[in-house]
Amino acid sequence: RRDEFRRDPRLLVKISHAEDRKAVARHLRECGKRGGAASVSFRIITRKGRERWIEHICQPVHGAGGRNLGRRASNRDITERKRLERDILRIGEWERQRIGLDIHDHVCQDLMAARMLLAAKTSDPAGIDDILRRTLERARGLAKDLYPVDIDVGGIVSALRALASEKERLYGVACRLKPVGPLPDVDRETATHLYRIAQEALSNALRHAKARSIAISLAGRKDGTVVLRVKDDGTGIPKSPKRAGMGLGI
């Protein structure tokens, strides 16, 4: 509560995660010396023992003659943003592992089989051609997985529309990309992140929520950011009981 922070100026440091405490204390010391606003992101431990990420922004407040009156601060819960960042890294690592295994288990094995047939001077050119054709198709699929969004041809909208069509065909569900308005320019890295997030959200909706209808929407904001939403009619996550107190659950 606010009154607790007023009574104990070091309370923010005390409730910080042990690994982040030094960084928070250093930030608070330096905030008074700087002329402008400064921010730091760190973890706190709530009364119930939960770990939450917050973004803390503060700036010194001066009175007449430049006298230091203290600092003005605000805290924002960014736990969900941090979770999404971890998910992006996890999805990327999972994709790299999957592609590596696919190359080892299929592409390399097929090429080895074709090499053995050629070395044996087989009279079955059709068999060799079939192996090479299958390997080429798989290699093209892996290349598409590495770069799922072609910025020059359709960009993120085209890639998401193709992803929705693929899920609809494979799982027999209604999966649509809702019409989108004007979007800001999105670079390849951002577009790929958006694609991976949508890909993971669709997989969760199909595997865990047992969804039968999924809608993907993409919209641009005036500040230049892009909002991706994936909505389904699945079972969802059970609602947790409401918490009393501040939004951070302190």
From TrEMBL:
<dbReference type="Pfam" id="PF08447">
    <property type="entry name" value="PAS_3"/>
</dbReference>
<dbReference type="InterPro" id="IPR035965">
    <property type="entry name" value="PAS-like_dom_sf"/>
</dbReference>
<dbReference type="Pfam" id="PF02518">
    <property type="entry name" value="HATPase_c"/>
</dbReference>
<dbReference type="InterPro" id="IPR013655">
    <property type="entry name" value="PAS_fold_3"/>
</dbReference>
<dbReference type="InterPro" id="IPR003594">
    <property type="entry name" value="HATPase_dom"/>
</dbReference>
<dbReference type="GO" id="GO:0000160">
    <property type="term" value="P:phosphorelay signal transduction system"/>
</dbReference>
<dbReference type="InterPro" id="IPR050482">
    <property type="entry name" value="Sensor_HK_TwoCompSys"/>
</dbReference>
<dbReference type="InterPro" id="IPR036890">
    <property type="entry name" value="HATPase_C_sf"/>
</dbReference>
<keyword id="KW-0418">Kinase</keyword>
<keyword id="KW-0808">Transferase</keyword>
<dbReference type="InterPro" id="IPR000014">
    <property type="entry name" value="PAS"/>
</dbReference>
<feature type="domain" description="PAC">
    <location>
        <begin position="38"/>
        <end position="90"/>
    </location>
</feature>
<dbReference type="InterPro" id="IPR000700">
    <property type="entry name" value="PAS-assoc_C"/>
</dbReference>
<dbReference type="GO" id="GO:0004673">
    <property type="term" value="F:protein histidine kinase activity"/>
</dbReference>
<dbReference type="InterPro" id="IPR001610">
    <property type="entry name" value="PAC"/>
</dbReference>
<protein>
    <recommendedName>
        <fullName>histidine kinase</fullName>
        <ecNumber>2.7.13.3</ecNumber>
    </recommendedName>
</protein>
